[in-house]
Amino acid sequence: MSNKVLFLKSGFPRAPLGLGIGRYVCQLQRVTLKFCKTHGASKGMRDFLEHDLVDYASKNSGIVVYVKPRRHRTPVITAEYLNGEKQWMNVSNYSREDIVKWMELLRTQFHDGTKLRLRKLWHTEFPSIQGPWTPLTFKDPSHNLVQFPNKEIGSAIKTEPTATEQLIELYKAQQIGEQQEQKTENQRNTSEGSA
Questions:
Q1: From CA 93, how far away is CA 99, in angstroms rounded?
Q2: pLDDT at 2
Q3: pLDDT below 50 — which residues of the chain?
Q4: How far, rounded to the nearest angstrom, does the alpha carbon of residue 35 sit from its chain's CA centroid?
Q5: Could you count the other beta carbons within 10 Å of the beta carbon of residue 87?
Q6: Any bridge partners for residue 68, and if so which?
Q7: Where is this region: Disordered (predicted)?
Q8: Residue 85 and residue 176: Cα distance in Å, rounded?
Q9: How is the chain split into domains, by residue range?
C-alpha cells in the first residue's frame, strides 16, 4: 500500500463561503488551454477548440479562457480558481469528448479535490451538545420495560387510507349502488306485472 496520501494536505469536505446561499458563484476564474498546432497528441484539443470552445465561452461568460499554441509540446489545461488554487492537467491523446467532460468538471468544482485527504466524510463547526440523533432519541422511556415482540408498539402508524384502500371503498360503493338499482328495477317489474 502506498504512503503518498500521508503527504497530502488533510481537511474536511467544505463548500466555499456563500456558495449556494443566495446565489451560485462559479469558482473557476481562468482556464488556459495549451496545445500544439501540428503534434498528433493535441488532436483532441484542436477538435475541442474548433467545435466547442465558442459555445463553452458563451455559456460561461464569467470564465476567462486563454488559448496558447506551443510548438512540439503536449496539450495541457490549467485551471485557476477564486481561492487562488491552480489545477494543472495533461490531456495528451485525449479525445474531444473527454476534453469536454474534463472542462465541465473543472467548471463545477471549486478546487482540485484530489489534493485533499479527507479526515472525515462530514464536519460541522457547531457540534450538538445533545449528541447525535438516533431513532430512539424521542421515544417514550416506558418502552424500555416492554417485552418484545409487542403488537402495539410494532404496528405501523396509519394516518390516512392508502390508495388501494380508497379504490376498494369506491368499488364497494359502486357495487352497492348497482345492487340498489337492480332492486328498484326488480320492484318496478314486479309492480308492473301485478297491475
A1: 10
A2: 55
A3: 1
A4: 34
A5: 19
A6: 34
A7: 175-195
A8: 74
A9: 9-118, 134-186
Q: SS3 sequence, the chain?
A: CCCHHHHCEEECCCCCCCCCCCCCCCCEEEEEEEECCCCHHHHHHHHHHHHCHHHHHHHCCCCEEEEEECCCCCCEEEEEECCCCEEEEECCCCCHHHHHHHHHHHHHCCCCHHHEEECCCCCCCCCCCCCCCCCCCCCCHHHHHCCCCCHHHHCCCCCCCCHHHHHHHHHHHHHHHHHHHHHHHHHHHHHHHHC
- Can you tell me the distance from the alpha carbon of 191 to that of 45, in angstroms, rounded to the nearest whole number? 93
| pTM flag (> 0.85) | no
**In which residue are the cell numbers 480558481 written?**
81
Q: Which residue has the cell 417514550?
A: 140
Q: Which amino acid is at 83?
A: N
Q: Residue for cell digits 309492480?
A: 191
Task: Let me know if domain 9-118 sits in CATH 1.10.10.10.
Answer: no
Question: All 3 cell numbers of residue 117?
Answer: 485527504
